[in-house]
Amino acid sequence: MRKMSSLKHVDTYGCSSLACVPIGIGKLTCLQKLLNLVRNASDAKQANLKRKKNLREVRILHVMGPPSISLKVRPETHCEHVARLVAKLHGMLLVQFVQVSTSMIGVALLSALSRLLVVTRSEIDLGEVHGTLKTGAPQGDTLGRMNPLSNSSCSCFFSSSNSIGAIRYGLLDIGFAPGTSSIENSSSRFGGAPGRSSGNTSTSIMSCTLNGFSFPSLKSLSLCELGNLEMWASVEKGEAFPCLDELKIKDCSKLITLPWFLHLTSLHIEGLNEISSFPESFLRCNALQHLSIWECNKLSSLPRELDNFVALKSLIIVSCNKLVSLPEGLRNLTSLKKLEIRWCENLASLPEEEGVVRGLKSLQSLEIAFCKKMVSLPDDLRYLTALKTLQIRGCDELASSLDGRRLKSLESLEISLCGKMVSLPDDLRYLTALKTLKICHCFGLASLAEWVEELTSLQCLWIGNCHKMTSLPAGLQRLTALQTLYIRSCPDLERRCERERGEDWHKIAHVPDIMIREW
Q1: Which residues pair with 415 in a beta bridge?
Q2: What is the 3-state secondary structure (H, E, C) of 304-338?
Q3: Is residue 104 classed as helix, strand or coil in its secondary structure?
Q4: Distance between CA 118 and CA 254 in Å, rounded?
Q5: Model-level pTM greater than 0.85?
Q6: Distance from CA of residue 420 to its chain's centroid?
């Protein structure tokens, strides 16, 4: 192996019978990734890790996993050895620990790393931690010993569907602890005075801070699968997480109360099944730029005060089946560039009130998917001169009502999964700026209209899974700007467009890039 002098990546995943580090790997000076090979300090010495200056990623296997290690070395001692090994890997970007045998070993390893590690790495990842704790994260004085709260802090992460959840510094993840209250009313979990966890409780309250700021440099926080967490309350003095930029809350099904964060720019909430209205605390997040709301089954409305989010650039709403309308406050989202609404079965329309949609003057992309009750777009859409991309999926009536006279600035249009639509709306002929037209999974569509030749700016035409489409219109050969034609899973069309021989070949022979494929 020593002769492979240019080798950069080594991964021994699945080589369970490999008993030792291969001879000669210590002389491979170009190595950048070494995965699933190193298990202990002896392996590290054999691999000559200390002198591999180009090494950027190491995956350390079986932390207290194999019997050969577990029976001979105390867990704390082994974790200390591993931490010392990691501390010597100067310049490393990513260190991963996989198959950590228990949650307690994970905590011991974090503790050892916190004492020994001069934090210069982008991320440290502890994965596949087997076993459980009663609480969802390292607690009390273990957190107190962590020292990654500076601007140069690294990330520490360990997770498993059956384990203690996750902690990141620089990033902080807490989660994957189904059935436990995970975080209760003790701010020591978040940087206050050391304390003991009380394990499973019915209180399920998380306090952000005790005295002053908590996690002053934290930028990204995730709470995932904390099934019993009901309340997350901030305190009166100071602001918790003053630098928090990104917050993700997923599958915390009982959570109903949340604090607010002054500098938050990205918020993703998913699976909060008990909230029927948007948490008032978030209405004060004036810096918010990205908001996504997924699978909040009781959410029936967004707040009128949505206009507080003057910096909002993207709004995504998915699977909120009780949502029946969007607020008039939408008119003041003048920075909004992307709006996506999917699987909101009771949402009948975008706001029809005069001037509401017109206020979205920066909107560039609009997607509406599987909103069965939505049958038309508002007239004010004609004023959105920045709107370039429109996607309509699984909304037959909406797709059939599209009016190109309202969408003259549109450059890209996708209509897909509209199985009942038998023809394209005639008013699409007015889309004179359209460059891309994508039609997919429209099983009832038999042909393109002859007026397609009026789409003089069209550069890309994509037709896929339109099984009833049998031919192309003659006017297609007059689309001189057309550069790309993609046809897939349209059996009759594929036959008629066969190169040099098909009946419709002469209509498309001028197109430089033609791709015709079966599924």
Answers
A1: 392, 439
A2: HHHHHCCCCCEEEEECCCCCCCCCHHHHHCCCCCE
A3: helix
A4: 39
A5: no
A6: 32
